[in-house]
Amino acid sequence: MNKPLPNAFAFRGSISRRANILIGLGASFAVLLVWQVSSWDGWVDPTFLPSPMEIAQSLWSMTLEGQIVGNALVSIGRILAAFALSAAMAIPIGLLMSSYRPVNAALEPMVDFIRYLPTPALVPISIIWFGVGEETKIFLLWLGTFFQLVLLVVDDANRVPNEYIEIARTLGARPFQILVDIAWRSMLPNLVDNLRITLGWCWTYLIIAEIVASDSGLGFVIWNARRYMQTDRVMAGVFVIGMIGLVSDQLIRAFHRRLFRYLKSTD
Fold first, then answer.
1. Alpha carbon distances (Å) from 215 to 51, 75, 81, 134
2. Is 29 within a domain?
3. Residue 165 lies in a domain
4. Is residue 41 part of a domain?
5. Is residue 244 a contact partner of residue 76, using CB atoms and an 8 Å limit?
6. d(CA 172, CA 166)
7. pLDDT band (50, 70, 90) for residue 1
8. Is 161 domain-assigned?
């Protein structure tokens, strides 16, 4: 007897991975088609929103001129440096905040206060502190990521069931063993997922970081094109950032599925 097909439109229904990819590609193509037709019919002023074909032509021209690959590598390097620094600091601090209430009581008000500060407003003070070199760019990217990530780490650690902790204590485990063997291993799947999310946040601060006396990077390319109202080149630079983000996001998703095969994948 054949099993009934799952209802994709049921509340929290399921679809195959292949169908998920095809639907995503189809929806993206439909949006691009409507966008292109709108440009052909004159519904959209190309000065403010160029057509997809114009953006593609500008992207090709910029690639041949050497404006894309080198600047993309520079931006990726800055993102990775800032994100690695954020993660290296946020993970141990978040674990300490979750494990010891006095540490949490001391740090959480400051973290909550700073994470609500708008990063663009801190550009002047960052220039005063670090000048206009690479340090300022890394600092601004770190600033936009670190304080959000700390609280996500705390939340992941707090979700470890207390039963696991009590069983470990009953078996004579020491605090460090509980932290490493129980809490860390239990929270790791969620932590990797949150690292993927915060990496995306880090990319959103790239333009802010690279307009600070910069002569390289995708943010510089976009900002320079804006000065001359080259909207097609601005959109081409934005497209490159989006594609890098999409590819990195999918790579981390694939890494997550492979590393934590024992979990039921929902993405």
1. 28, 11, 18, 11
2. no
3. yes
4. no
5. yes
6. 10
7. very low
8. yes
